[in-house]
Amino acid sequence: MIQRRILALALTALGTASLSAEPIEPPRQPTTFSAEDEAVYQARFARLLEDMKVRAGLTAYDPLETVPGAAKPMPLPVNAAPPFSPTALTVAASYAEPRNSTGLVVVQGGQIAFERYFGANTRESLINAQSFAKPVTALVIGRAIQLGHIRSLDQPVAEIITEWQDDPVRSKILIRQLLDMRSGLLPQGFSTDPADVLNRAYLHPRHDEVIIADYPATHEPGTRYEYSNANAELIAPIIERATGQRYAAFLGEALLAPLGAPGGSLWVNRPGGTAHSGCCLLLPVESWLKLGMLVMHGGVWNGERLLPAGYVEAMITPTAQNPYYGLGVWVAGTYTERRGFAHPDVAYGKVLHSEPYADKDIVLFDGNGNQVMYMVPSQQMIILRTGGSPPKTAEWDNSFLPNLLIREAAAHGAGPPPTPQPR
User: Is the preceding peptide bond at 284 cis, omega within 30 degrees of 0?
Assistant: First the structure.
């Protein structure tokens, strides 16, 4: 039972586990790799189990690849008179700190209105924001469309991952359905068996090949939302094949550099191998904030359109299969007290929302450990909380911070009081 719990937590390092489902196709025979690759995989699997004694996931990623950023990053200006009372900011920091936060930063009107770092962390610290990497994959795809490397969100994946062209299920998957988690691929789950495809798709030094060749389908594409890290992990090989660039290079040069944002690093499955695009992207606070600002600005930065017209609207539009999830981002939808990453019908892994969001148009980057970035268009505000999972004695309430600061900002003239999330 302990091992089962350990591995369940480990697999949520990329996201949150969901229920398993039966494949809709005959069993797929595992791909055979070299003895050297298999030895690397087995060593990683053993290290994961050991690392789980101290944290939920690997304690370090190896190897890492550099993600380039702007040659001369442009720091966000600081607002010396932000539209918040000192009391409200003290309450916000006092809420975040005991919940294992490493940082709390608020941007309003394009300026840093408040920042507080805990422990040894600083603005320059690289933040592994876990599944924040998933909305980044949507931004990277949008950038590739804008630059002409990819035709559209509705381009079949099999036109790029050509191994799928003759596959009766996978040939139907659209790029859009990888981003909105409706590909039909096996939902996230856990297993204590190192031979399980879920483990191999995470830790294998050829994890992209495992996903492409071995990962099973459980539903017809487009028919059901199921949170699966495999969806986001496929974006790296798609970008690399479509652009001819390494995923890290394209991310840095095409997306971060135009934002004037600093770079960082990401995990690749082996030296010179494929990036883990669904997780394990390490960037400083400034970069995460600017990515959120790009979304809030509709894909335009300093007058330059970086994402296609209408692309951000597509990102923040949920599907019928999950009214809370768009393309890598979370939206308000209709109020429910608890909701999680998995299919809405799944009963576990849900996060508390003690009241409706004060702005029905709020958009979230959301990652494991309650790392969250709230984008609030009515107040031109972004709230970023980084850190680890709160202790059991201090449950995370996903509506507390945004509602506190939305009401404060509106009261101090940052924007009109917004329409709250409907019940």
Answer: no
Tell me the two tokens of residue 23. Answer: 């494949």
Closest of 386, 392, 383 to residue 371, by C-alpha: 386
Helix, strand, or coil (residue 113):
strand
Residue with tokens 């690759």: 37
- On the question of pLDDT at 5 being above 90, the answer is no
In a domain, 352, yes or no: no
DSSP-assigned letters across all residues of 259-327: GT---EEEEBSSTTS-B-TTS-EEEEHHHHHHHHHHHHTTTEETTEE-S-TTHHHHHT--BTTBTTB-S
For residue 115, tell me if it sits in a domain: no
In a domain? residue 340: no
**What is the CATH classification number for the domain harbouring 159?**
1.20.58.710
- What does the alpha-carbon distance between residue 373 and residue 300 come to, in Å, rounded to a whole number? 19
Task: Give the domain range for residue 221.
Answer: 2-70+131-248
Instruction: Report the domain count for the chain.
Output: 1
| DSSP state string for 339-386 | EESS-TT--SSEEE-SS--S-TT-EEEEEGGGEEEEEEGGGTEEEEEE
- What CA–CA distances, in Å, run from 10 to 21, 321, 390? 20, 27, 17
Give residue 2's pLDDT band: very low, low, confident or very high (50, 70, 90).
Answer: very low
Residues 24-52: pLDDT tens digits? 999 888 999 999 999 999 999 999 888 87
pLDDT at 301: 98
Span 313-339, mean pLDDT? 98
d(CA 212, CA 298): 32
What is the per-residue pLDDT across 358-395, written as a single tens digit (0 to 9) for each?
Answer: 999 999 999 988 999 999 999 999 999 999 999 999 99
Tokens of 104: 């709390």
